[in-house]
Amino acid sequence: MRRGCWEGKAGQGWAGKAGQGRAGAGFPAVRGESLLEGQPTRVLLFRGRRAGQAQLLLSPGLLSRKAMISQFFILSSKGDPLIYKDFRGDCGGRDVAELFYRKLTGLPGDESPVVMHHGDRHFIHVRHSGLYLVATTSENISPFSLLELLSRLATLLGDYCGSLGEGTISRNVALVYELLDEVLDYGYVQTTSTEMLRNFIQTEAVVSKPFSLFDLSSVGLFGAETQQSKVAPSSAASRPVLSSRSDQSQKNEVFLDVVERLSVLIASNGSLLKVDVQGEIRLKSFLPSGSEMRIGLTEEFCVGKSELRGYGPGIRVDEVSFHSSVHLDEFESHRILRLQPPQGELTVMRYQLSDDLPSPLPFRLFPSVQWDRGSGRLQVYLKLRCDLPPKSQALNVRLHLPLPRGVVRWTSRASLGLPAKGPPPRLLLWGWALPASPLNFPGTHAPASRSASSG
Amino acid sequence: MPYLGSEDVVKELKKALCNPHIQADRLRYRNVIQRVIRHMTQGLDMSGVFMEMVKASATVDIVQKKLVYLYMCTYAPLKPDLALLAINTLCKDCSDPNPMVRGLALRSMCSLRMPGVQEYIQQPILNGLRDKASYVRRVAVLGCAKMHNLHGDSEVDGALVNELYSLLRDQDPIVVVNCLRSLEEILKQEGGVVINKPIAHHLLNRMSKLDQWGQAEVLNFLLRYQPRSEEELFDILNLLDSFLKSSSPGVVMGAAKLFLILAKKFPHVQTDVLMQVKGPLLAACSSESRELCFAALCHVRQILHSLPGHFSSHYKKFFCSYSEPHYIKLQKVEVLCELVNDENVQQVLEELRGYCTDVSADFAQAAVFAIGGIARTYTDQCVQILTELLGLRQEHITTVVVQTFRDLVWLCPQCTEAVCQALPGCEEHIQDSEGKQALIWLLGIHGERIPNAPYVLEDFVENVKSETFPAVKMELLTALLRLFLSRPAECQDTLGRLLHYCIEEEKDMAVRDRGLFYYRLLLAGVDEVKWILCSPKSDPSLGLLEDQAERPVNSWASDFNTLVPVYGKARWATISKCRGVEHHGPELPNASCATSGPLVPAENKERVQDLPDSGALMLVPSRQLTAECFEKTWLSLKVAHQQVFPWQGMVHPDTLQMALQVVNIQTIAMSRAGAQPWKAYLSAQDDTGCLFLTELLLEPENLEMQVSVKQSKTRTETLHSFISVLETVIGTIGDFKS
To answer: Taking CB atoms and an 8 Å limit, are B34 and A45 in contact across chains?
Structure first.
């Protein structure tokens, strides 16, 4: 691994200082005028601020750069305020929530809603599980930090309330305010670590309803069943981290999920234009804090193009980044991640891969389009093939087909799903839970024939 | 129940809060208080139960305490007298053995935001600063800032400031960061907290102990620090190198910004840093969070302005996917447009062509304009794609394609032939004003190459009565008159009818006046008309003006990782302008007056005429440079002098051009009024044949005009005289504005 080596002269580049054996030496601690000496020097030292001001080059842009937020609120998807907290009292009244929603819904099409302003107040929001988490500020703040903070708040609220949603938030108003109070003071972030916060949070979460076996729609993260072991789906995904206080039978459980987002672009002739995989290993831990955990990845795992080893393609990713609590001392040799996970959810590792995929794509779509000019009929045949290994299965597969404006009528004959027809929508949508093995899955044949007028 | 009258709710809750049975049952009591809080969140006025809530604060139940304090902080400004009653309980809690209670009470007390509370909180804060629990110290440190802001006046308590400076050495990292924040607010008038060498080094050594928020914030404070020597600078960079690889985008961007600013004299270091943040930025661009993705895309565009090739090999990352929201797609198209190069142009154009048939008309049009932008460099390929798009016969596509053609023909005359061949047939698919104007303009100016041009225009004249847009009629008048000059036989009759209609029947005065003007012009003779109407048909030098020249990294380094790139520079300028008016209204005119001097135009003229004697400079009017010649000379010369003049508001090109004409400086090319950034190219020649070429660059947000002068012979004394002539002119024009 490269230790940082920044050099003044061009050409010498990175290696310059390492050669002189200085890179490893670390940063020289404060010299003679040490901070840690006795009281009198300290005061004198800092008293110099007025004198020091002259030599500082303060450009006006750098002057006021306080990273604080003025207000924070959570709105439901319909714009009702669920949570509202004013940290500084410097930015108008509480009608800001309404103002924000009005601005959001009345935005011209080419402007982005992420950052909006009203007077000298900026609204920055993230949308998460149908809720708007909004912060207002009057400072020229770092957008990356603030968006990250809002996402982190969403995760935290999810951790403590079980899951994030309109219902859970309004049931747990007291808990949410308590959390906000500890996370932000006067608009400044204090801490967002679950570990530190759990010492201060006293309210217990109100969990909505006991998990029902029949409620299969909630099978998702941290509880999907596999074919080898038919375990009851766990409710881990919607369990608050704090429930241990009352209930002694709390099991020491750890859930690990690999979540991959695969975006593929296929040309009309079937060739792959772009493949992009964003993956992460997500961990939800209910272990007592401080317990060490080792996650072994397959030894074939390699990072970057140059590192291919052994036979076969191995498991390759382009770039990988780890959570700051992961110790990587055994990663180079044995591909072992060592960590002491805090309670709650955390992303242990993120990786990216683009272009050459080592395995085939999970689905293939074979479209064919016939255009009969005389009758104005357009026939679209879509054939979808699932290439997952037999052990896996695909849930919630959806197919969207946007329709052009000129469509007058449409009919659909799908081999899975009901035939349909009617007035033209802007978009056709089919959804299935596809079985996995190619034997059980006779390439779905969904011909949709539509009658389009070319007016 | 937001619909219930709030009086009823308040009454009911008041009763419940007073009920001794409920008060005895901890859970029920807490539930009632929770209901109060819930109503408060929904916006109901709950200040009526303040008294009861104050009573509820005297409890051992810490959850209840928290809820009550939250309530008090919200309503204290409305009920200051009642809130004073709660102070007693709060003060008592401030000396509770439990640090959590102490912290909570102190935090709430400092957040009460009502006049008169300062005298009560001062002592608890001072005690809190020396508390043994770090939790209480954190609260107390921020409490200092709250107390200072409550005071309103800018009187700084020196002892307190010293105390805070000394707390920078605290063991707890959050206390350290809070100290910085607090000092920043207290010392706002003096320019904020001062980061001198010992503090900077101390913070650098503590960096690894902080969490990601602390790191991001300290990196921001370190921007203030100016290392004394190059060696120290590189020591700092080496130490901070690991933060460029942090898993938090906020820390990575904060570190990148610090690197860019510290290394402002080392362009290769800046390039290296931007290389290193490429990975994290690209990851953010394809992140699950759309908002983060958007912020990252905006920063990618910013970087591309300086390093056009920076992301070229990753162009596929910026292809849009179907489910992305509109604002991300538009940003991605802009990015694609900017990173195009010889290797990827084929694929990028192929991709953009796909977007042109998107269901969303807005997005399709944006894609067409993007192709038009690329066409300035890769003309042939793009014109071919655009021509094919006309074949779709879709109204919303045809109109933007024709508009793109108009701009393209003006900038790249070599594609005129192809465009003229593509135009016939378009008129059937254009309904909107902009598209019609573009088509009519093209037909008028290049009509001699389009066989059916007179007949298309004739159709427009036939339907002129039902035409709703006056701008189209104006354009039609000009175009037909131009075409009449090149093809008189075919146009005479139509032109006659149009003029008749405009003069006799038209109700819009501007159109009628234009018609009358052309009629009288025709009476004066065809030669006159030619002299007035036949301007050049293209102007490649405009491309030079509009071309976003590679901006140095330093011009935006201080905006990196702020809201500026996210809003876009132009929008940010308008936002900060209306903020600036409030804050610095009276100061700005003074500044510009002071530098431009109390010149009035009359005096100015005399002075300009005096100047040649004093500076031995005589500008002669004779030489007329062509745009091509100017461009060639401009590119071959080095900048001899650069200077910044103060400037405010808009430019009126005509006024400026006229004023420059007076002193014999020719205007070669100039941006439209109101364009941002506004540019102009000037040339002048003195009696010895020495050429002065000048670029004026106005970026409205800087409130200054940047002037670069190039000289064909190096002679310092004439250069200085030339600069002073220019300064006088610009100063005078600037004075007119303010």
So the answer is: no
Q: Assess B248–A contact: CB distance below 8 Å, yes or no.
A: yes
* ipTM of the shown complex: 0.76
- Backbone φ and ψ for A381, nearest 5 degrees, come out as -105, 125
Q: Give me the mean pLDDT over the B26-51 stretch.
A: 87
Nearest to A59 among B213, B234, B558 (CB): B558
Closest-CA residue to B115 (of B153, B141, B167, B88): B153
Task: Spell out the residues 6+ positions from residue A118 whose beta carbon is closer than 8 angstroms to its own.
Answer: A99, A103
Distance from CA of B102 to the nearest CA of A (A): 12
CA triple B474-B372-B382, angle to 5 deg: 125
pLDDT digits (tens, 9 = 90+) for A281-326: 888 888 877 788 888 888 777 777 655 555 555 677 888 888 878 8
Q: Do B166 and A143 touch (CB under 8 A)?
A: no
Is residue B460 within 8 A of residue B442, CB to CB? The reply is: no
Q: In the predicted model, what is the mean pLDDT of chain B? A: 83
Find out whether B248 and A147 touch, Cβ atoms under 8 Å: no
Count chain A–chain B contacts defined by CB atoms under 8 A: 286
Tokens found for residue B395? 């109204």
- Contact flag B216-A142 (C-beta cutoff 8 Å): yes
The CB density around residue A414, as the number of other CB atoms within 10 Å, is 18
Tens digits of residue pLDDT in A381-420: 878 788 877 777 777 777 777 777 777 777 777 665 555 5
Alpha carbon separation from A440 to A278, A362, A393, A437, B726 (Å, rounded): 29, 15, 11, 5, 83
Query: For the purposes of burial, counting CB atoms within 10 Å of the CB of A25, is it exposed (0-12), middle (13-18) or buried (19 or more)?
Result: exposed
Extract the tokens encoding B735: 């004075």
Residue, of B605 and A341, whose pLDDT is higher: A341
What span, in angstroms and rounded, lies between the C-alpha atoms of B575 and B562? 14
The answer to whether the CB atoms of A174 and B34 lie below 8 A apart is yes
pLDDT for B172 equals 92
Q: Which of B163, B232, B291 to mutate to test the interface with A (most CBs of A within 10 A)?
A: B291
Which tokens is B659 given? Answer: 């004023």
Contacts of A52 in chain B (CB under 8 A): 194, 196
Q: Is residue B223 less than 8 Å (CB to CB) from chain A?
A: yes
Residue B532 in contact with residue B524, Cβ under 8 Å? no
Identify from B41, B237, B259 which residue to disrupt to test chain A contact, counting A C-beta atoms within 10 A and taking the largest count.
B41
Return the structure tokens found at B435: 């598209």
Residues of A whose CB is below 8 A from B201 = 27, 29-30
Which residues 92-111 of chain A have a CB within 8 Å of chain B? 94, 109-111
Among A406, A427, A431, A405, smallest CA distance to A417 is for A431
